[in-house]
């Protein structure tokens, strides 16, 4: 097993270079894109720490992964000399990061209430600019 950490110990938890590599290999951001809307609907608007806790609990549950995704998790774990639980924790950080973001236009926090409104959030998956619903609609808060 590798001794290099996958995430920093400071708060909020952040992925290290190895953690980012593992995330990319396993497709963690894409998985987060698929699962965040459902999880966001269940959560509503809650504090960031609670979101993080829920994301870690969600990623611990193997039932939240398809058999194909579980196989990919095991392959990535093996290739990197780490446990599959460590890969799922990386996925939890990506899920949390997709659910908690800051609008790049106005600086407003974007949390699951935005996702649960039934609209697709441009935040999940970390692709492109992160915008709050007001900025997406062209209304500055």
Structural write-up:
The chain has a two-stranded antiparallel sheet with strand order 1-2. It has helices at 17-26, 28-43, 48-60, 67-80, 84-99, 112-116, 133-136, and strands spanning 101-102, 109-110. It has one domain (17-136). Residues 112-129 have low confidence and may be disordered. With 141 residues, the chain is an all-alpha fold. Helices cover 55% and strands 3% of the residues. It has 7 helices and 2 strands; from the N terminus they run H-H-H-H-H-E-E-H-H. It is globular, with a radius of gyration of 15 Å.
> Percent of residues in beta strands?
under 5%
Order of helices and strands: HHHHHEEHH
**Total beta-strand segments:** 2
Any idea how many domains?
A: 1
Sketch the major β-sheet: 2 strands, antiparallel
Distance between the termini: 48 Å
Helical residues, percent: 55-70%
Q: Please tell me what the overall shape is.
A: globular
List unreliable stretches of 5+ residues: 112-129
Key features of this structure:
141 residues, mainly alpha, two-stranded antiparallel ribbon
Question: What is this structure, in a nutshell?
Answer:
With 141 residues, the chain is an all-alpha fold. The protein is built from seven helices and two strands; from the N terminus they run αααααββαα. About 13% of the residues have low confidence.
Topology, element by element:
Blueprint lengths: L16 H10 L1 H16 L4 H13 L6 H14 L3 H16 L1 E2 L6 E2 L1 H5 L16 H4 L5
Antiparallel strand pairs: 1-2
């Amino acid at each position: 097993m590798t001794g290099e950490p996958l995430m920093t110990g400071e708060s909020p938890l952040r992925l290290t270079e190895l953690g980012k590599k593992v995330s990319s290999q396993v497709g963690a951001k894409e998985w987060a894109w698929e699962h965040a809307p459902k999880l966001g609907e269940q959560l509503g608007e809650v504090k960031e720490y609670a979101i993080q806790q829920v994301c870690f609990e969600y990623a611990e549950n193997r039932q939240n992964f398809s058999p194909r995704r579980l196989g990919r998790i095991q392959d990535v774990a093996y290739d990197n000399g780490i446990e599959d639980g460590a890969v799922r924790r990386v996925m939890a950080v990506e899920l949390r990061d997709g659910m908690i973001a800051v609008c790049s236009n106005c600086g407003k926090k974007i949390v699951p209430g935005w996702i649960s409104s039934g609209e697709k959030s441009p935040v999940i998956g970390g692709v492109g600019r992160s915008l709050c619903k007001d900025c997406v609609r062209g209304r500055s808060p």
